[in-house]
Amino acid sequence: MQINTTAPVVTRDQILIHAAIERVWQLQTDVARWPSWQPEVDGAQADGPLTVGSVFRWQTFGLDITSTVAECEPPRRIVWTGPAQGIVAVHEWTLSVQRDDVLVQTAESWEGEPVKAQVAVMQRALDGSLRQWLANLKRAAEARTA
Predict the structure, then answer these.
(1) In Å, how far from its chain's centre is CA 52?
(2) How far apart are CA 11 and CA 72, in angstroms?
């Protein structure tokens, strides 16, 4: 599964993290611990490790999101989908080893009536959200390896 490249809002971003791929994957997929390293996540719950079909719930920026894992290839790729207040999102994460680092690439698409009504606002929100998520992931992964 991939993002919807024709959606009204699409963001792609990446970051290089100096940590083992297993560490980055563990942080990224341990949903219940997201609030410990992501200030923007107010709460998160998952029943066990993420696998295809897993459902997890999380809260961020006033949104209650229920996401479902569509693809999971540890420790290299995970894709989840989830509606939140009329926004339909598809979020891809790809991790690849680059010498002693991990390149984390992410892409997300948003569609739905709220998105169509405020494309520019929604685009800025998603751009900022993914940039912050990546920065938080880098900080957490590198702090634990220092």
Answers:
(1) 15
(2) 21
Domains and CATH numbers, the chain: 9-145 (3.30.530.20)
* Region of residue 112 (phi > 0: left; psi between -120 and 50: alpha; otherwise: beta): left
Residues in the chain: 146
pLDDT tens column, 88-131: 999 999 999 999 999 999 999 999 999 999 999 999 999 999 99
d(CA 92, CA 109): 9
Pull the structure tokens for residue 42: 């107010």
Quick one: pLDDT at residue 62? Answer: 84
CA 15/CA 32 separation, integer angstroms: 23
Exposure letters 97-117 (e unless 16+ CB within 10 A, then b):
eeeebbebebbbbbbbeebee
Please state the rounded mean pLDDT for residues 5-31. Answer: 97
Pairing of strands 9-17, 77-84: unpaired
